[in-house]
């Protein structure tokens, strides 16, 4: 049994038992059931109350004696007798059950809507009749006055099929098309038998079965709290005028049938379709459920009464009539049974639950695993068990791991063998200090925060002295004597670090406030001692207080300046240590053929190149055949490019040089020819004139 409390409402999970990890094998579980007393003592209210794989829907007969559940796999229906607390019968079906209903007071008349469009009728002995509807059905309702079944189909039609039990085999089904939308859910009012269906477009259409005409249309999508077009996923009548509508986006809308506006809108905040709606008339509550949570809330105010959140997803919820018990069909083999004493008493077939819950009210059970310890990765590092990650000894769960409690205790004892001795000494010391409280108390400074305690003692003495001088004055209680602040002077974790940045920045303000407080106490003491003091002498104190208000600003600035200086010194020291720890490894470079070695420290040559003009530097580079690029502003990076020529180009240049040398040797001077020709021309010219 698992006990939880939500909003101060006790909830008992009767099908929980002792928590067993899911990774244990079936053989290990059977061994624990034989050896563990707690597992043997767990409550199994109804024997074998489970399905092989999944339970899709669950209902209780009108007489309250039988609980029927549909599930898979294989598709089947199980009936449990509450008077015998065991399984009465089990019947397998051809297809999965979409919805089913109990037509009689007991289990003698059942009808099943299957996923293959078949509608199957069962009597007390078993299968009775089977027929097929034209479209895939999603839900159906039974009209008791006319013995008709109304099916909501997954197409643009809604089908009406008369179902007279006395002539079921001889009559042909009558189908009537009177809807134009896809129908998800439907329900019939138990008072005036008005039929309502919820569509995929977010509408609720109401029909009168007597005339087979639509009498009302309600657009619920406009009243929802979100944007979009939510479809109707649940529908339930309560009395003659109330109706609850559940949407696919997780809202529940309560309507009065005389108005098209909702009285109340309740949001589950999970954005999941509402799967079940039920009313608890005794306390005016609504029980709404989606796949994650069951919420119980007041239908008038919307205030949350309680909530249930099972481990597996929810498919259906059924409330046992006139009691505080409810059953849930889950995406899990086990069907949960919850008992809430605040909703009502236990059913008469399990009345012992009332006495049992009264005994367990003062001793709630723990919901953690008793045989396993949850540890984080940091805990594993402290215990030295980081190498076990990924092994079978650790099971990953959320942000940590589960490990065997015996292994945890053994490793913890080995990691700190004196932990128990230290714990024992601390307990003995606490007992001795408690016994000394009855003796005469002497003012003694605590071991933690001595300066703060001394300051508080001095302030307390001043206040006590001032209160003693007044006639009706009473001293305020000191922080040292208050149990709420006792840990601050006992636990070393609360030690004030006076060298921290926060303390140094706040200390000038706190010290000035303390000085002003002491000065004020002295003035009040003087006023109490001298009743005839004149008021003229108070101006100087006010001026001094204004000077004190300005002085702490300078102290804070000085502290900030010192902190910045310390940070710079600390960073400089860290850089020096990093340079000192850095090991310089020499790097060797190979000079290629045809290159000239240049010194790395040839600063004069670099300065000369920097002072030279661009034309001179280009001429020097062309003359040397090497292009040098030096960027001294970025760290004196040097890039060297060597102009390489092909063998053919070198042979051609060498042939041209040889040809020029040969021509120079054979060259003859023709200067005299040019000078004689000039003189002759000049003479002839001058002679003509």
Automatic annotation (TrEMBL):
Main location, first listed in the record: nucleus
Amino acid composition bias (Basic and acidic residues), ranges on this chain: 548-580, 614-624, 644-664
Localization, UniProt: Nucleus, Nucleolus
GO-annotated cellular components: 90S preribosome; small-subunit processome
One Gene Ontology term from the biological process aspect of the record: maturation of SSU-rRNA from tricistronic rRNA transcript (SSU-rRNA, 5.8S rRNA, LSU-rRNA)
Alphabetic keyword roster: Nucleus, Repeat, WD repeat
Residue ranges of every copy of the Nucleolar protein 10-like second domain listed in the record: 368-416
InterPro entries in the record: Beta-prop_NOL10_N, NOL10/Enp2, NOL10_2nd, NUC153, WD40/YVTN_repeat-like_dom_sf, WD40_repeat_dom_sf, WD40_rpt
Region of interest (Disordered), ranges: 524-588, 614-689
Ranges of biased composition (kind: Basic residues): 665-689
Stored SUPFAM superfamilies: WD40 repeat-like (SSF50978)
Domain NUC153 as annotated: residue spans: 482-508
Bias (Polar residues): 625-643
Alphabetized Pfam families for the sequence: Beta-prop_NOL10_N (PF23098), NOL10_2nd (PF23097), NUC153 (PF08159)
Domain Nucleolar protein 10-like N-terminal: 1-363
Entry similarity comment: Belongs to the WD repeat NOL10/ENP2 family.
Protein name, entry field: Nucleolar protein 10
Biological source species: Stegastes partitus (bicolor damselfish)
Phylogenetic classification of the source organism: Eukaryota, Metazoa, Chordata, Craniata, Vertebrata
């Amino acid at each position: 049994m698992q006990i939880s409390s939500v909003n101060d409402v006790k909830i008992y999970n009767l099908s929980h038992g002792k928590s067993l990890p899911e990774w244990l094998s079936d053989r290990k579980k059977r061994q624990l059931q034989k050896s563990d007393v707690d597992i043997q003592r767990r409550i199994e209210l109804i024997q074998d109350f489970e399905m092989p794989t999944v339970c899709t829907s669950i209902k209780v007969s009108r007489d309250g004696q039988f609980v029927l559940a549909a599930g898979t796999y294989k598709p089947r229906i199980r009936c449990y007798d509450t008077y015998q607390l065991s399984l009465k019968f089990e019947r397998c079906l051809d297809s999965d059950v979409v919805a089913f209903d109990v037509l009689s007071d007991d289990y003698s008349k059942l009808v099943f809507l299957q996923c293959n469009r078949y509608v199957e009728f069962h009597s007390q002995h078993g299968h009775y009749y089977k027929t097929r509807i034209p479209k895939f059905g999603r839900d159906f309702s039974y009209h008791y006055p006319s013995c008709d079944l109304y099916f909501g189909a997954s197409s643009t039609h809604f089908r009406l099929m008369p179902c007279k039990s006395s002539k079921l085999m001889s009559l042909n089904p009558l189908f009537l098309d009177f809807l134009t939308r896809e129908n998800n859910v439907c329900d019939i009012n138990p008072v005036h038998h008005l039929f309502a269906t919820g569509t995929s477009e977010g509408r609720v259409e109401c029909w009168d079965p007597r005339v087979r005409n639509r009498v009302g249309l309600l657009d619920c999508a406009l009243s929802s709290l979100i944007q979009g077009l939510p479809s109707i996923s649940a529908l339930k009548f309560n009395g003659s005028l109330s109706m609850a509508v559940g949407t696919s986006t997780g809202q529940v809308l309560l309507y009065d049938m005389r108005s098209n506006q909702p009285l109340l809108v309740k949001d589950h905040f999970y954005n999941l379709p509402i799967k079940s709606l039920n009313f608890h008339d005794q306390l005016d509550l609504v029980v709404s459920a989606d796949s994650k949570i069951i919420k119980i809330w007041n239908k008038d105010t919307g205030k949350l009464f309680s909530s249930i959140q099972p481990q597996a997803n929810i498919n259906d919820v059924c409330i046992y009539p006139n009691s505080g018990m409810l059953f849930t069909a889950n995406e899990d083999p086990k069907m949960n049974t919850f008992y809430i004493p605040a909703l009502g008493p236990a059913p008469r077939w399990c009345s012992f639950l009332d006495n049992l819950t009264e005994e367990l009210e003062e001793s709630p059970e723990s919901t953690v695993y008793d045989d396993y310890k949850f540890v984080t990765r940091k805990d594993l590092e402290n215990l030295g068990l980081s190498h076990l990650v990924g092994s079978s000894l650790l099971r990953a769960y959320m942000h940590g791991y589960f490990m065997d409690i015996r292994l945890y205790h053994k490793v913890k004892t080995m990691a700190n063998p004196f932990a128990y001795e230290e714990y024992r000494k601390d307990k003995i010391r606490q007992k001795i200090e408690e016994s000394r409280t009855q003796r005469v108390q002497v003012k003694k400074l605590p071991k933690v925060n001595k300066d703060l305690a001394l300051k508080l003692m001095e302030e307390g003495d001043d206040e006590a002295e001032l209160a003693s001088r007044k006639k009706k004055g009473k001293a305020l209680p000191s922080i040292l004597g208050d149990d709420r602040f006792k840990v601050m002077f006992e636990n070393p974790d609360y030690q004030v670090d006076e060298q921290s940045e926060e303390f140094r920045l706040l200390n000038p303000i706190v010290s000035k406030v303390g000085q002003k407080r002491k000065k004020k106490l002295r003035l009040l003491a003087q006023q109490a001692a001298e009743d005839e003091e004149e008021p003229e002498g108070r101006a100087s104190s006010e001026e001094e207080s204004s000077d004190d208000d300005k002085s702490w600003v300078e102290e804070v600035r000085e502290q900030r300046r010192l902190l910045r200086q310390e940070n710079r010194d600390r960073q400089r020291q860290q850089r020096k240590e990093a340079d000192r720890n850095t090991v310089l490894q020499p790097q060797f470079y190979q000079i290629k053929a045809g290159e000239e070695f240049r010194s790395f420290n040839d600063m004069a040559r670099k300065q000369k190149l920097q002072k030279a003009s661009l034309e001179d530097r280009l001429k020097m580079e062309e003359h040397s055949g090497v292009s040098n690029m030096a960027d001294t502003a970025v760290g004196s990076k040097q890039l060297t490019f060597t102009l390489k020529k092909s063998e053919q180009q070198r042979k051609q240049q060498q042939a041209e040089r040889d040809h020029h040398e040969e021509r120079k040797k054979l060259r003859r001077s023709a200067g005299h020819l040019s000078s004689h020709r000039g003189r002759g021309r000049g003479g002839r010219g001058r002679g003509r004139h």
